[in-house]
Amino acid sequence: MASDGVLVLVWGDLNHVRGLDVQKAVSIVAAVVLAVLLVSSPSSAAEGSDSLRWGPCPDLGTPANGLECATLAVPLDYRRPAGPTIEIAVSRLPSTDPAKRRGVLLMNPGGPGGPGLTLPLALVGSGAPASLRESFDLIGFDPRGVGHSSPVTCDLPADRLTSDLPPYARTPAEVVQQARVARDTAHRCATSPTAALLPYITTANTARDMDRIRAALGEPKISYFGLSYGTYLGSVYATLFPERTDRVVLDSTLGPTGLDVTAARRFALGFQDRFPDFAAWAAERDSTYGLGATPAAVTAEYFELANRLDEVPVGGVDGKLFRLTTFGGLYNDRNFPALAQLWQALQAGTPPTNVVAAEEPDVQNLLSAQLHVVCNDSDWPESVATYQRDVAHDRIRFPMFGAAAANIWPCAFWPADPIEPQVRITDRGPSDILMVQNLRDPATPLAGALETRAALGQRARLVTVDNGGHGVYLGTNTCANDAVTDFLTRGQRPPFDSFCAKEPLPAQPGADLSNRTLVPVP
């Protein structure tokens, strides 16, 4: 399930793999040119008598291959459990050997905003071992507000269907300019046809929905696999319902406060951590791409191209989009050839040739749902001056991407305050969580994962992997893959935090990004 990343031109990820091309399964084609390129726990009354009636799945854009689907009514507002309800779409790929079945493995691909109905198929397609398929019914679901689960919209115009990440700001005036855009986006969310749902699209409510799914499945406990933002969702579930967790895997972990302003600024740290891998790769292939014969030369070329495109865009790609595209390309090594070809074309002043219209409803929903969760989960600074200060600071600390990561989001102008305090991740509960984390992750840097590890205390063990990129499981590191599979299928977890050394990469083709741009979804 390793992640192929995507952040605009490639920020998406949600997959990676030999593997779990979850990203391809859940990421969306966005509107950018690419040359080659996601308190209190409910009372026992939440244990509803609803059961899931399995049947054919809705059109998922991919063959069902044994997948079956159902819908479940859940409270819109868990503070009013008898009030209005919304529907949650759930999918199931049954265990291949009922005699060996342990239970259910609920999964989330990240985002927030990533649809999850096809995730069981993506896991299987990524090479999930037979023992995993025997041990669990694989359960996917579209989180509230997403896909087939009462989807929300912000009616974003076409020029905002690339990424929710703000653009790189070179001056205080450009922060003010972005603030105008962010304010308008927040207003669109507040006045859209789905505005009545807006305050209730939160991580805590999605975790409560997960427990309703558990009850409807008739299971006393659930196992869980979450990638990227899905790690925060899993941490929140394990905090609200600690005794209802069986075996929990958090892959590429956000900090314990989720995708808040701190995590957003950390994208710049992740870029700086990860970029040297691409620089070394490109330098070894200077005869092919001409981007520099040393990592230092490739790094200098990044700044040269960004500055040049700031002044004179090429084929619609300006410096802001170039930086964002490069960030997305860092999600997976397989993106490197396509990213290098894009640099090569821009270096020569050759416009990218393939433009993909971004008026896809799934992209609209993905980015809208992402904003709902991110802005509802935590209270963001509201002062434009705060973002101007942070941009100026991070442009110096993290010159490659800091002035984008610290720029202002629509959350600064969000129409609703959080409806409840943010869930505080704690160490209360059984010791049943395994975290796996690449050392050089562009989207969820190691720094945040270490904070979550500390918050979970003895509930968790952490396996760090000497890899770059976003997403670990079913990727190229057999040590990490075995650690996850052994834990899920046999309950064998490292007694202490452990480390997986770097392994030689298998021969594999470059990512095919010749005619599309992937949406960045942490």
Would you kindly provide a written description of the structure presented here, covering whatever features stand out?
This protein is an alpha/beta fold. Among the domains are: 22-152 and 197-261 and 421-500, Alpha/Beta hydrolase fold, catalytic domain (Rossmann fold, 3-Layer(aba) Sandwich); 271-347, no CATH class. Helices cover 37% and strands 12% of the residues. The protein has helices at 22-26, 119-125, 130-135, 172-191, 203-217, 229-240, 261-284, 286-289, 295-311, 319-329, 336-347, 361-377, 384-397, 402-405, 446-456, 478-490, and strands at residues 68-75, 85-93, 103-108, 136-141, 222-227, 245-251, 433-440, 460-468, 498-500. A 9-stranded mixed β-sheet has the order 1-2-4-3-5-6-7-8-9, with helices on both faces. Helix 6 links the parallel strand 5 and strand 6. The longest helix has 24 residues, at 261-284. It is globular. The relative contact order is 0.21. Residues 3-49, 355-359 and 508-522 have low confidence and may be disordered. Keywords: Hydrolase, Signal. It comes from Amycolatopsis bartoniae. Belongs to the peptidase S33 family.
Topology:
Layout: H1 22-26, E1 68-75, E2 85-93, E3 103-108, H2 119-125, H3 130-135, E4 136-141, H4 172-191, H5 203-217, E5 222-227, H6 229-240, E6 245-251, H7 261-284, H8 286-289, H9 295-311, H10 319-329, H11 336-347, H12 361-377, H13 384-397, H14 402-405, E7 433-440, H15 446-456, E8 460-468, H16 478-490, E9 498-500
Parallel strand pairs: 3-4, 3-5, 5-6, 6-7, 7-8, 8-9
Antiparallel strand pairs: 1-2, 2-4
GO molecular function, one term: hydrolase activity
Domain AB hydrolase-1: 104-286
Domain Peptidase S33 tripeptidyl aminopeptidase-like C-terminal: 400-500
